[in-house]
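Hi support team,

I'm filing this because I wasn't sure whether my run with adenosine-5'-triphosphate finished correctly. The job status page said complete, but I'd like someone to confirm that the output block is well-formed before I use it downstream. Pasting the exact inputs I used:
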Amino acid sequence: MIVLDQVSKRFQRRDKSWFDAVHPLSLTIEQGEIFGLMGYSGAGKSTLLRLINLLERPDNGRVLIDEHDLTALSASGLRQARQNIGMVFQQFNLLSNRSIADNIAFPLEIAGWSKADIDVRVQECLNIVGLSEHSDKYPSQLSGGQKQRVGIARALAPRPHVILADEPTSALDPITTRSVLECLQDINQRFNVTIVIVTHEMSVIRRICNRVALLDNGHLVEVVNVENNQLYPQSPVGQELVRED
Ligand SMILES: Nc1ncnc2c1ncn2[C@@H]1O[C@H](COP(=O)(O)OP(=O)(O)OP(=O)(O)O)[C@@H](O)[C@H]1O
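And here is everything the job wrote out:
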């Protein structure tokens, strides 16, 4: 379970004035959910996502994952805790000079796994995302959708409880988007991994999310349930986002 307790984040602009990217907000995401963060550009979605693994440290408030307060951890404690939180990026962020298998192995090497355990786990993850026959290729030899599957396999490799996905399908065409979303959904269902996904596409929310937090100018406007691929926001901004879909 992820608990954001009154977290906030402000950035300093070039002219030294301060800008509130995330106003104080609280949110609880249950283990096993696929939870969306949605809003217009600049709403604070990515910043909020990055507060969950402390890639951005909140100015105030606490972030609890499985009841551990990440904001109270030392640097080494935080490194350890991050093993439990995978991340998937819009532009994949693969290492171009490493093979697919070695990209997936990377977080396991950092975490100090043995070579034998890494080899087994990499094969498992390749299998899960359907890329077993591509293990010796390099990222430049894969399509966008395949690259994102490698990104997902890499995030999954250390057996995290949580995967944070920042616009994972925004660089992909609609058909590839569908297959990448199915891959995320499959991982969620098979391994009960909580997935938090930032998107500006309502279709992504409809397809795979259980709930979505709607953000507007750094404020949490409402949290909406998604049932049978439908959602009925109450807020004006939520209704606008649905209407524009
Ligand atoms: N490191 C930073 N320094 C200064 N301002 C920042 C920083 N990171 C984000 N911001 C600002 O905070 C606001 C929220 O950014 P964020 O990326 O979280 O929004 P978003 O909803 O994900 O938007 P988008 O859909 O465009 O990516 C934006 O105005 C952005 O310019």
